[in-house]
C-alpha cells in the first residue's frame, strides 16, 4: 500500500513539473561562450556543459567560430565545463544577469591540472573543492591508461582503498578498512547492492559492470547514508556508464566506438563495439562486448611462498598458475534519449550482463567453489527537467527494475582413510534469484541567491528466492547417495522508503555550511517456504535463540534517522578547508537475518536472527585542499566510530552454555549472527599532483598516501583487516599536444604487524601464522592519442608488476597476479 502511494506521488510531481515548465516564459537572458587556445585561436568542436544552480545541466558544442550561445536562462550563478581533446578539462564560474546578453571567453591552457566534477558527493554537480566529502574521480582516459582487467582493480591505487579477492570478475573494493558489504555501489546513481548478496561472505562484485561501458567512477570516502541510505558506512562508489551523444541542433550524426584489450598473464581478451547517433530530438547508443580470461599466474614463486599458500589451501602449480581463477562474460547495453526540448529529456536504458564459469581463485582440491553463471539484467527510465521556475532549478525522477540471478556451487571432497573413515563427497548448488525495483525522486532549489536545497525521496524493494541441491556420498563415484533440496534462506523481501533533504547555505563568498537529514523505513518479510526448516534443537534452545518464527513467516519494521553537518571555508582562491560530522548505518540483510544451515566449516551450524539491529557509525572528516594551475593536493584526517557491528559467534542458551545440535554423531556447534562489536577506524589520506614544463612536454609527479588504524573496542585488540600504510607514487609525462604519454608508478604496502593475538597464531591453530607481509610493485604504461573533431584513436601499452614479484594483497586468500603485458585500443567516430 505504501509503495503504491509512493509511485502515485512521483507521477503527480512529474505532471506538476510539466505544468510549471509550460507556464514559464522565456526570460530573454542568454550566455554567449567563446573558447580559445593559448595562442588566441578559436576552438571549434569543444563540448560545453552549462550547469545552473544545484546541478541543472545543458549541453552543447562550439561552432566553427568557437562560439555557442545558451538561450532562455534564469538569473544566477552558472558553471561552464569545457572538454576538448588534447586539453585538460576546464571549469569556470560565471554570473548571469536577467535580461542581458551575457558573454564569457574561456582560454584553454596546456599542462594545467584536470578539474574534476562529482555528482556522487552531493547528488548535484560540484567541483571536488566545493564539497566537504573526500572524493576521487576517475575518468575514461585514466581507466584506459591503467589497463585494468576488472572494475575492482581501479581501487588498488586510490587513497584509502584496497581490494578483496582476485581474478577477472570477483575483485571487490575495501574502503577505509571496511569490506564491500559495508560499501554502497551505485550504477548511474542506482543501487547495485542487494540485500541477498551484500554480505561479508560474498559482496557485490565489480565485475557485474563491464569496463568498456564505464565513462567514469566516483568514490566518495566516508559516510554516505544521508544521501543514499543503507550500506554507505565506509564509502559510496558511483559507476557512471557511457551515455548517448549530446543533442545536436541541426542534422543527425552517426558514430561508433571499437574498444579492444589484451593481457598476457591470463590470456585475457575483451572487445566492445558500440554504435551511436544524435539529432535534435533523439539520441541513442547500443553496445555489445565479450570477454574471456583464463587462469592467471602469480609472480615467480619460491618454495617457501608456494608452501605457505598450500598450507592455507590455495590451489597453485609449481610454476605459479592459480587454479580455478578463470571467467567469461558478455555485456549488452542499449540507451535511448528523447530531447523534449533543451530543458527536458527522457532516457531509457537496458543492460544485460552474462557471466559464466567464474572461478574462486585458488579454491580447488578438498574444497572447490565457483559460479557456473552470474547474470544481471536491468531496465531503467529517467526524466530530467531543468530551470522549471526561478526557485525550482531541477527535477529528476528515475525508476529501475534489476535482477541478479546466479549459481554458487561448491564441492567438498575428503579422501577415505580406511578402515575408519569411508571418505566424504558433497556437491552443493545454490541458485539465488534477487529482483529489485526502485524509484528515486530529486528536486534542486535555490532561494535568495545564497541558499540551495536538495530534497527528494527514494524507494527500493528486494525480493529473493533460492533453490538448493545437495548431493552427499562417501566418494564421487559412490552409487549410494543422499539428495537434499532443503533451503538455507526462506523466500524473503526487504523494502525501503526514505525521504532526504540537504541544504547548502553560503554565509559569505568564502564560507558555506552544508547539512542534511534522512529518514528510512525498512520492512523485512520472510514467507513460509517449502524446503526451509529449523534445525534439530530442543524447544528451549529454539526459544533462547528466538528463531521459532523463521520457518512460519515473520515481518519486521524498523526506522533509521541519519544526518550530517559540515562547512567549507576558502582561505584564499587556491586553498580551502572543510570538515563534517555525520551518521551512517547499514540495515541487516536477508542473508544475515534468515540464513539457517551448516556453515562452510563442517562442524558448525548457523541460524538466523530476525532481531538484529542496524550497524551504525559516527563519522568525522577534516580536509585541506590546494588547487593551483600547476599544483593540486589535499590532506584528510578521519575518525569513524561504529557500534552494533554484526559478527557470527557461538550461540549460548539462557544459562550461558554453548548450544549444540540434538542429533547423533559428532557434536555440531550452533552459531548465530549478532550485534556484538564496537570498532574505531581512523587515519590520514594525502594526495598530490604537480605538472611542470620541460623541453619535451610536461612532467607530472603524482601520488597518494594512506594510513589506517583500526581498533576492536570490545576486546581491546587491533582490527585484523586494516592495511596500515599504502603509498602510490609515480610520474607521468606527456608531450605538449597530449598525443604521447608515459606513466610510471610504484605501489608500496607496508607490513602489518598490528594484529590481534588470535590472528597471529600459527596456521595449524587457525591463525594467520604471523604478520601480513608488505610488498612493492612497479608498473609502467605508455601510448599515443590521435584526436580530431570527429575521429579519435588511441593505443595504450602497459607492463604491471615489472619484477614479476610473487605476493598477495593483504588479507586476501589467493596470490596476486604476476607480470602482465597489456595492450588496449580505442577507435572512435563521432
List keywords for this structure.
22-stranded antiparallel barrel, 830 residues, mainly beta
Summarize the entry for a quick read:
The protein contains 6 helices and 43 strands.
Write up what this structure looks like.
This protein has 830 residues and is mostly beta strands. The protein has six helices and 43 strands. It has a 22-stranded antiparallel barrel. Strands 10-15-16-13-14 form a five-stranded mixed beta sheet. A hairpin with a 2-residue loop joins β33 (615-628) and β34 (631-650). The longest helix is centred in the first third of the chain and has 22 residues, at 2-23. The radius of gyration is 27 Å and the shape is globular. The relative contact order is 0.11. The model is unreliable at 22-27 (pLDDT under 50).
Q: What's the number of helices?
A: 6
Q: Distance between termini?
A: 47 Å
Query: So what's the oligomer here?
Result: single chain
- Which structural class is indicated by helix and strand composition? mainly beta
Shape: globular
Query: Strand portion, in percent?
Result: over 45%
Note the main sheet: 22 strands, antiparallel, barrel
Q: Considering DSSP H and I runs of 4 or more, what fraction of the residues is helical?
A: under 10%
- What's the mean pLDDT score? 87
Unreliable residue runs: 22-27
Determine Rg (CA atoms, Å). Answer: 27 Å
